[in-house]
Structures are given as C-alpha cells and as structure tokens.
Known about the structure:
Layout (H helix, E strand, L loop, with lengths): L14 E6 L10 E8 L8 E8 L7 H20 L31 H15 L2 H20 L12 H14 L4 H20 L27 H14 L1 H13 L3 H4 L7 E2 L4 E4 L14 E4 L2 H9 L27 H12 L11 H12 L4 H8 L4 H10 L14
Antiparallel strand pairs: 1-2, 2-3, 4-5, 5-6
Amino acid sequence: xxxxxxxxxxxxxxxxxxxxxxxxxxxxxxxxxxxxxxxxxxxxxxxxxxxxxxxxxxxxxxxxxxxxxxxxxxxxxxxxxxxxxxxxxxxxxxxxxxxxxxxxxxxxxxxxxxxxxxxxxxxxxxxxxxxxxxxxxxxxxxxxxxxxxxxxxxxxxxxxxxxxxxxxxxxxxxxxxxxxxxxxxxxxxxxxxxxxxxxxxxxxxxxxxxxxxxxxxxxxxxxxxxxxxxxxxxxxxxxxxxxxxxxxxxxxxxxxxxxxxxxxxxxxxxxxxxxxxxxxxxxxxxxxxxxxxxxxxxxxxxxxxxxxxxxxxxxxxxxxxxxxxxxxxxxxxxxxxxxxxxxxxxxxxxxxxxxxxxxxxxxxxxxxxxxxxxxxxxxxxxxxxxxxxxxxxxxxxxxxxxxxxxxxx
Length: 409
C-alpha cells in the first residue's frame, strides 16, 4: 500500500518575525517583519506574504524599541506555533435584499443613550470614509466604557446630562491617563453625535454643548519652516529630489493635506478656471452629501503645474503615483512622509519638529504675512466655519488684523 506523502512542516507556512532596527538609526522607523501564509497567492495554491508592524512613535530609545519588538515577536511566534499562520481572507458575501419593512421610531423616553448614539455612529460609518467612521466608533466605545465605569450602562437618552459628559472627561483624564488633546477630540466627537440627535428630534438640548476644552500644550511637531529653513530645504530638494519638491508645492501653495494630495487626479486640476477641484471623495472627512470644493491656483503653483505637462496623461491618472509622477496607481499613505523624512535627514535638517505637514503651516503663515485676509484663508483652507480659521491662525502664533484679499508668496 502506497504511503501518503508527509504533510509539509509548519515552518513552510510562515517565516519567524525579526526586528528591523535600520542599523540602529533612531531617526528611521523600526519595524517587525514576518511572513504568513496567504491562500490567495499563486492562483490559489498559496504562498508566503510579507507582513510588517511598525514601532509606535512613542518609543524613542533603542531599549524601548527593542522591548516592544521582543514582546511582539514572542506573541507572533506563539501564534505561529499554535497553528495561526494563515492570513484572514475576506470571502465574498452574497447580497441579500430583504423585503421592505416599515421603519419603527423608538421613543426618546425609552431609548438608552448608548442605543441612540449607536444609531448615529452607524449612519456616520455609512456616510463617511473608513477612518472617519472609525473615529466616531472610537468615541462611542470610550463613552460606553465611561458609563460602565460609573454604573450608568443603562442610562436613558432623555436622562443624559452635562454631568455624564464631565464624568466621561474625568474617566479619560484621570482613570485612563490619556492626553487633554485626545480628551478634547473625544468630547468634540460626542458633541457632534448629540447634535445629530437634536436634528432628528430625539433630544432638544445637547448635554455636551457647554463642556469646555482643556488647555493643550503646544506640540513641537509639524512646526512651520522658518525662512532660512525653507530656503535651505527648497534648494536641497530642487537639486536632489525635484519630484518631491513639486509635491510639496501643492501643500505649501494650495494648503492640500498630504492625505488628500495622494487622491488628487489629473482631471482635478482645472487650469482654464485656475482652480483645483476637491470632490467629496478627496476632501478630508468627505461625505456623500457634500459638494465639490475649489481652491484657487496661485501664480507660483500655476507655474509648477504647467511644468508638469499634465495634458500628456489620462484624466483619471493620479497626480502623484509611483516615483511621484502621474500614474494609474494611488501611492501608499506613508511613502511620501518617509521620503520627506529621509530628505530632511540627508539635508542635515531633521530635528523631530519639521514634517511633510509643516509645508501647509508654512504656506498659511507666509500667506498671512504678505497680506492674505482671513476670508481668503478660510476659502483656501476650505474651512466651513470662520472660527476654525481663527483658531488655526492663533495656533500658528499669528496676531489677527485686517489684511488684503489675494496674496502671492
């Protein structure tokens, strides 16, 4: 009788994790690398797929990063040895359209606060991008933890008051030991959810409306470039990485967020109208119900765009794809930030404070200094509320005064 072939050893299906220390360079991202089995590779025959887990930024020293890495390596290794080495594969889910049923509205007098908030969060998750939906989901999760901590898990929506919101604040700061900035963001998210409940006539008053923000220590990250720093780094980029220099011009001149810039397509550059279009699919926190926003192309940015010769590319090509040139593929979220970081290091200018996002702050500061009015800045920043613009300008250390309308910097 012919013996059945022996099963492949478990090590065939994975490769043990390793901590990549980037030759001990603490200015670079350390990460754990491992390989797990992906059943979708090689036409369904399966194969090893590379996986990476980056070290959180809060670990600054080599010892801290090594402790983090060793702990993660031990966890992954144990999972492999226990047989958990296959990557999760999303199976197609059949679409079942249920028969229409009448919508039943729950009375505000009997619905719990958690159930009401869950209703709004589900709507947010369906109307916004994944990251925005996740942020509202996180707000609800933290609030539920707070209610359970204080024994109020079954609190009715109609009985929710500012006291419960302040308890939530205390829970975040004193029990979870989280930052004031994080707490303020959670309170703002909760306030937004309660506003939605007011719009739907579940409640008449927002219990989070009068809860004040806590003072936040000014961050030393994402600072604006000083004039000498900007001049020096621009010269370096022109000489050593001209495509990255072009990329930074959109952030500096049009105040485009890096996450939005990776989504911009050739068709969004409207040279005849002298504007850049930001449809909801591009804008931060874009909703399906929002309209397209537009930003004026400044003279300096127009010159950069003309030199890109975008008319040679299909309208649906991304403005910045591989090698930061127009292409079909959307560039990975963190690749440009890492490239910008490496350029700062190569230029001898890395200090932990300047980042890719610093170009946006620098552009706003310089536009304001040469005469941009607050109204113009609000439109260029695409802020829906003038108060957001004023707060932003104050956070950059700018003294508010009357200015001209359209600047050039």
